[in-house]
Amino acid sequence: xxxxxxxxxxxxxxxxxxxxxxxxxxxxxxxxxxxxxxxxxxxxxxxxxxxxxxxxxxxxxxxxxxxxxxxxxxxxxxxxxxxxxxxxxxxxxxxxxxxxxxxxxxxxxxxxxxxxxxxxxxxxxxxxxxxxxxxxxxxxxxxxxxxxxxxxxxxxxxxxxxxxxxxxxxxxxxxxxxxxxxxxxxxxxxxxxxxxxxxxxxxxxxxxxxxxxxxxxxxxxxxxxxxxxx
Amino acid sequence: xxxxxxxxxxxxxxxxxxxxxxxxxxxxxxxxxxxxxxxxxxxxxxxxxxxxxxxxxxxxxxxxxxxxxxxxxxxxxxxxxxxxxxxxxxxxxxxxxxxxxxxxxxxxxxxxxxxxxxxxxxxxxxxxxxxxxxxxxxxxxxxxxxxxxxxxxxxxxxxxxxxxxxxxxxxxxxxxxxxxxxxxxxxxxxxxxxxxxxxxxxxxxxxxxxxxxxxxxxxxxxxxxxxxxxxxxxxxxxxxxxxxxxxxxxxxxxxxxxxxxxxxxxxxxxxxxxxxxxxxxxxxxxxxxxxxxxxxxxxxxxxxxxxxxxxxxxxxxxxxxxxxxxxxxxxxxxxxxxxxxxxxxxxxxxxxxxxxxxxxxxxxxxxxxxxxxxxxxxxxxxxxxxxxxxxxxx
Lengths: 230, 394
Known about the structure:
The structure holds two protein chains of two kinds.
Chain A: E1 3-16, E2 19-32, E3 36-40, H1 47-54, E4 62-67, E5 70-71, H2 77-87, E6 88-91, H3 103-112, H4 118-131, H5 147-159, E7 165-169, H6 177-194, E8 197-201, H7 205-208, E9 213-218, E10 221-227
Parallel strand pairs in A: 3-8, 3-9, 6-7, 7-8
Antiparallel strand pairs in A: 1-2, 1-4, 4-5, 9-10
Helix pairs in contact in A: 3-4, 3-5, 4-5, 5-6
Chain B: H1 3-16, H2 18-54, E1 60-65, H3 81-91, E2 97-109, E3 112-121, H4 125-129, E4 133-136, H5 141-146, E5 150-153, H6 155-161, E6 171-174, E7 177-185, E8 190-191, E9 194-195, E10 199-203, H7 204-211, E11 218-222, H8 229-243, E12 249-253, H9 254-297, H10 299-307, H11 312-348, H12 357-384, H13 387-392
Helix pairs in contact in B: 1-11, 2-9, 2-11, 2-12, 3-8, 9-11, 9-12, 11-12
């Protein structure tokens, strides 16, 4: 089986006022299709940077990174945007839904950039909202939805394009524990049902322990990469 | 992203900030409205002047000493009635030749008096200048030949001197000499700022005696043939140059007068449009400013759109359309106000205003272009935003 994402000795250095600040210094890992990975580590360990790289939002300054078999460093900005659209789904801690926009239109947004017609967009978005249990909230706007519901809309938006990898950055960080648990269960169910690889950045040890694989980071390097039960 | 979708997003964004959008548009509205209105006034003035010059009569050739040019000093005329006869021979029809020797004079009738222009003319004047009489008759050949003291009054003079009775048959006193009124002209109204009804025509021979001169000021010829009018003018000038060596003469057609006036009014219209254009430019700067604010406010939205697959171009187009929508809606509103203003000005004031299609097209084109020009920088900035940085923005 080909890897969904493959990183070999990936590094990322920021230039801040002429000073080079290394955020990642040689990370190698492979995300396989259907994986369920928790990415853990203290703040400043480089896990957010890694997450952005894995999602094609950023390019490495060193090493080799392939998403869906395509070398990220060789892609132009529009090509990278297309790659994100086709292979990656993002879920953010702060939901990042468009205000004044209905749930169904929020979910349909990625399809806009894929060139899908309005009617088909809505049908697919409505179906996806049904899968996350919000089939009755299609026309609601973000400010009419609870936090848990908003994150479900965001999850539906991430999955509406049928990506190979779902990148979730602290998806339960802004939710109370009961709601967070429900969202987590939803993510796990979707991971099991559709075979989308789930990579989740988290601080929460209880969350991390549920993943099949845990990658721990510190100071820009991977300090451990272990399968559950091993 | 499809264009229709981009339009929808742009109009939603503008609706979300109604007041701000309206105020931003106001700059463009004022700019476009003033361009349309001022160009309409300039064009209307030009059209009116052209109408009036053409209203002097068709195929006219004015023969004057010196050069007819903007800023040329008026020359003293050496022309005499013998020259007029010579011009009549060149034209081949003396009835097509008119003259004038004019002076301001006080005209009295009883206790009333009026300061007006007294013109010494030939009996050919109504033919050459297409003048019509309201009452009585015009001068005849014999009136001119014998220097008979008869006068034809302009409408304004007739009203001033004889407000309560018909002027025809009455006596008037021109510079101390008694004349009998034989006719009154049809009212003409204002032309080039001159009251064309404020004049008295008397035989040129009588006028020369009155003013103590043998000269005539200018000769006008009604050319028989429009195509050969320039050639005829050249022949007349050549004849007069032969009779008065050392003096320059000009024969100008209505087209040439229109050309000179048109140039002046064209410059005037251009200056007005340029002044109005400055306000449009200021409006454009306002659009640019508000677009930069909009990009900053929606940085996270931009980051998200990029994360889900928007290309830099998609984001750029979205913001550019927003700017163009602002200026083109503002432009259309401004056009409507400008047209309305022009119609109002034309209706309630003596200032003529004619809305032209080119000024509307120009104003709309310029306002849309302003949107593009002033929207490009904010749009590019939005398109180039780093998605990682944008998503982190507050």
